[in-house]
Design brief:
Length: 329
Amino acid sequence: MESLQPLSKLSVLEAAGRLSSHIVSTPVLTSTAIDRSYQTTLFFKGEHLQHTGSFKFRGAMNAALLAKEAGEVGTLCTHSSGNHGAALAEAGRILGFDVKVVMPKGANAIKVNAVRRAGGEVIWCAASNQAREEKVAQIQRQYAAVLVPPFDDERVIAGQGTATLELLDTVEQLDAVLVPVGGGGLLGGALLASEGVKVIGVEPDLANDTWRSFKSGERYGIDYSLTICDGLRASVGVRNFELIRRQASDILSVSEEAIVRATAQFWRDAKSFVEPSAAIVLAAVLENPEMFRNQRIGAILSGGNVDLSALQKPPYDRWMANEMAANTQ
């Protein structure tokens, strides 16, 4: 295995300086209606309002800027279910790189189109993590491309940590920060940025490899998942799991029904359009209300690139309709 480079809060602070003129310092959103529902005070970091509609732009742009500083030219490549690919394509467009993105068949059409709009080339592969990794390795060799992995990468982790850094600079005296976890780049960065504050990862039951890994102390992976959280279907990365194993306060695994209910509640009560992969942080509060009662909780809303067609399929359509109808009588 390749040696792992050290990461620290300094890595995040350096990324913040590098990114300052390229990213949106996204707002922190609150909702009195949601707070009343759970008798807690929630502060949502609105990364769905970041460039390309997700936090992924932070890590992708940090990696692309470092590649530019190192004198790289030509092609960047990655594999992605969508948000990271769109982010890297946009970073490449801004900095003058060609970008090739390996995407699984059946990927969120909104995210596929976002990659193409930014000038990225989509290259299809089978819908498994192994197929993604094998195909991107082939592309890297073929084009002598610089690989920018979606999460298991020091440049990316440090960039993602700037979202939590901004949250903690904006909101004081938080009891904990809730962070969605798929591959673990956002959570890993949050752990680096949040010295002295509890950080809890949240992932779907249908893709809970990080939860299993955290509880056992041994890293597990998944190759395929049907969770509605299309942004959280990846296996937790090696670097990311080392950070999570050492520093995370807990990992929570939540049901698909809770995720859809939380998505609908956020749309209805916070009046903000986020994807299920983001609303999962509210789902954690929905399923564990006693854990967070009477606390000040930060939460990272990871993205807003919503695939409405997924929410129109059973049983998600029923859950969504029931929740959107709640409290409207």
